Amino acid sequence: MEEVDVSYSSNGTTITSVDTGVPTGTYEADGSQINPETEMPYEPGTPLYNDENGQPQPATTNQDPNPVVYVNSTQTWAILEAPLRRESLIFDRPTKFGKFREAIDWVPVNTISSEWGKLQIIIGGVDVTYFRGHPTELGSWSSNEPNGDAATSITFPQISWWERPNHGEISWTQAGKDVTILLVRPDGSTKTLFEGLNVSHVYNGQGLGVGLDVLGVLYQADHTPYIQELYKNTSLWSIA
């Protein structure tokens, strides 16, 4: 993650423009800067920044003219949750088949779109979905047969490298804590999407974030030193 200059314009209490994609130190070309790839000068006025080798590179932005961000009277930023949506494709019975009976020119005739719900992340009994008011970043997760949930990763950009791990308000980051990822449906009911165990920390980019590596619940018995203690009175020592 790069540091960025954040600029915005406002209309009353609504932010009308947000630009968080320009690296710090961006400047405009004056015609003397050379594109290292084409060896031609950049057009004057082109936003540039110097990379780690000191070479000028074009700076792109992520400006959104209609951001979903609002400011209240105390200038506190608010996060608006957007529920996940699910799209289902509807097909008619296929009428054309290939040599091996595979359907040919089989395309959907309709699409059903519906609200699926929201994700909830619980670690060590603590809901960290929006820890410190910032959305937690959930990576993809995998599953295997026959043991189900296998692995995933969870990133917290709002936790610095310099914080003492496993203590205070981040004590739940301690290895060995249970991790549960839930789907919260629109009607309030829940479905467990992933169950596992936090096994290690991962440090991400210039002290700007901390990640957790998570093993699936049925792989925990093979991981030392956090979980084998749970099985010391049983004959179950290896699952995989």
Description of the molecule:
This protein is mainly β. Helix content is 0%, strand content 38%. Among the domains are: 84-114, no CATH class; 117-231. The protein contains no helices and 16 strands. Strands 8, 9, 10, 11, 12, 13, 14, 15 and 16 form a nine-stranded antiparallel sheet that branches. The protein has a three-stranded antiparallel sheet with strand order 3-4-5, with no helix packed on it. The radius of gyration is 25 Å and the shape is extended. The model is unreliable at 1-20, 64-77 and 229-240 (pLDDT under 50).
Question: What is the element layout, followed by pairings?
Answer:
Blueprint (H helix, E strand, L loop, with lengths): L6 E5 L2 E6 L7 E2 L18 E4 L5 E3 L11 E2 L5 E2 L5 E7 L19 E14 L2 E2 L9 E2 L3 E3 L3 E9 L21 E7 L5 E15 L4 E8 L24
What oligomeric state do these chains adopt?
single chain
Q: Give the helices and strands as they follow along the chain.
A: EEEEEEEEEEEEEEEE
Strand content: 35-45%
Low-confidence stretches: 1-20, 64-77, 229-240
Would you count the extended β strands for me?
16
Percentage of residues assigned to helices: under 10%
Would you summarize the structure shown here?
By secondary structure, the protein is mostly beta strands.
